Each structure stands twice: as C-alpha cells, then as structure tokens.
From TrEMBL:
The keyword Ion transport does not apply. Belongs to the COQ7 family. The gene is coq7. Pathway: Cofactor biosynthesis; ubiquinone biosynthesis. This is 3-demethoxyubiquinol 3-hydroxylase. It is an enzyme of class 1 (oxidoreductase). Binds 2 iron ions per subunit. Fe cation 2 binds at residues 85, 137, 169, 172. Its cofactor is Fe cation. It comes from Vogesella oryzagri. It is found in: Cell membrane. The lineage of its organism: Bacteria, Pseudomonadati, Pseudomonadota, Betaproteobacteria, Neisseriales.
Amino acid sequence: MLDNLITEFDRGLRTLFAPAHSARPHPDHAVAEAELDQAEKQHALGLMRVNHCGEVCAQALYQGQALTARDPAAREALRHAAFEEVEHLAWTEQRIRELGGRPSLFNPLWYTGSLAIGVAAGMLGDKWNLGFLEETEHQVGAHLDSHLQELPAQDARSRAIVTQMRDDELKHAEMANELGAARLPAPLRGMMKLSAKLMTSASYRA
C-alpha cells in the first residue's frame, strides 16, 4: 500500500508540473494551422484550457479510484482510462501553447479535490466505483460535444483533438458498463454536473 501511495504521489506531481507525453500520434499532427482572429484564438484557448483541466481532474479521479478499487479487473480498467487521459493531457497542453496560452492556475486545486472524490468513490465498492467512472465519462463526452459546437469552424487542429478525446471517453464509459457499473442516483449526477460547471467557468478565464 505504501508503494502504491508513493507511486501515485509521484504521478500526481508529474501530472501537475511535468510535460505529458503521448504514445499515440497527436490527432492534429497532420492538420494545417488555421487563420484565427484574436477573439477566435482566445475563445479556442479558453476551451482547450478547460479540456486540459478536465484531464487533470480525470487523472486524479482515476488514481484515487484505482487506489481503493477491490476487484483487479476494475482496478485495471481505471488504470487504462488514466493512461489515455495522460495522452489527452499531452494533446491539450500542446494545443494551449500553440494558441499562446498556459494551463489553468487552478489545476492543483481541482487535482486535490478530484483525488479525494476518487478515493471516496472507490471505498463505496466496485460497482459504484465503476458507476462513477461511467457517469463521469458520459458527462465529459457531452461536454466535449458542446465544445465541438463552440470551437471556431476553421480551427481544425483543436477540433481533431476534441473529437478523438470524445471518442476515447465514450469507450471508457462502455468499458465501465461492461464491467458491471451501477447507475448513480440522479441527485449525485446533478452534483457532478454542477461541480463541472464551476470548474469550467474558472478554468476558461484562468
């Protein structure tokens, strides 16, 4: 258990303070940069900063859930999801830099809160742990769909990244469902949406 805690602490530090790396090619690697005016660039930057922040939260959430998961299959599913979220971190981080910005100043705060939520979810039992994973991914998928509507039409690079992220998140939700995820109560799903709105509003600006 101590070894796991040390490993996860190291992973948290790297999530927050070290550049992320992707095993897969970046979805936008072959896409030409578009001409964006200042307002379009700032809006795209804000949206990609929100997406990066969401991936920081996902890392922390799945780390916490994996620490307290009882079933090895559930633990492995959570670690697989976390691995792909690292790739999403790399993609969004690079895009933020290309747009002339930086990640959210609030990332350490969101990371700490998400880690605590993940640990708590895992302690409830594996079916609820997986249910939390499934609901999180469904909400993230809907959130990314809304960003595809909001991003400037000509910003094909950002759109390629968001599309691949959305597809990955929905696969994670399907995986959790196949492993026996329980459907979360409506009040809890509503609280998750409310907290996501708070994070989105703060991270878009800073």
